[in-house]
């Protein structure tokens, strides 16, 4: 009997400081605002949190390991690229994405009008139906760095499952018993 648990959960979060003159990109969507995240890439906190959750679910490390901020390759890189790459790594490890849930914490602006576009872009980058990507938004209630408008935060959880239940994912030292 295969003792592996079929489903695996992953968690990711990300925080970026906000500064004037930076573009606010979330889930690959440009949200018009006077401040944006400071970061080596485009600072897309939502994409970064989801990427970390995907890598974490398969115990493949974290975003810093796969996309080091010391590498010029990732300077101002669109973070949807990270999601595409994470999907490839999951494929190679023998997993597919069951669903993603996430929350963006940002004091301003209101994100509701942009969420459908974010869901579409992230789902497209990950090669999964939009229905499998949930994005929620909330404010910081005036407290902490988010509440004071100085930072953006994103949290994400994902569930992954083996590509084929009959054939456990490779690379785990698993031997089939007959
Ligand atoms: Zn980030």
Overview of this protein structure:
- It is a single chain.
- With 178 residues, the protein is an alpha+beta fold.
- It is 26% helix and 28% strand.
- The chain is built from five helices and seven strands; from the N terminus they run E-E-E-E-H-H-H-E-H-E-H-E.
- Strands 4-1-7-5-6 form a five-stranded mixed sheet.
- A hairpin with a 2-residue loop joins strand 2 and strand 3.
- Helix 3 crosses helix 4.
- The structure holds zinc ion.
List descriptors:
26% helix; 178 residues; globular; binds zinc ion; alpha+beta; two-stranded antiparallel ribbon
Secondary-structure blueprint of this entry?
Layout: E1 8-20, E2 25-26, E3 29-30, E4 35-37, H1 45-57, H2 63-66, H3 80-93, E5 95-105, H4 115-126, E6 133-138, H5 144-147, E7 151-162
Parallel strand pairs: 5-6
Antiparallel strand pairs: 1-4, 1-7, 2-3, 5-7
Strand order of the largest sheet: 4-1-7-5-6
- The succession of helices and strands, N to C, reads EEEEHHHEHEHE
Any ligands, ions or cofactors bound here, and which? zinc ion
Strand content: 25-35%
What's the story with the biggest beta sheet?
5 strands, mixed
Mean pLDDT: 90
So how many helices?
5
- Class by SSE composition: alpha+beta
Q: Helicity level, as a percent range?
A: 25-40%
Question: Span from first to last CA?
Answer: 9 Å
Number of strands: 7
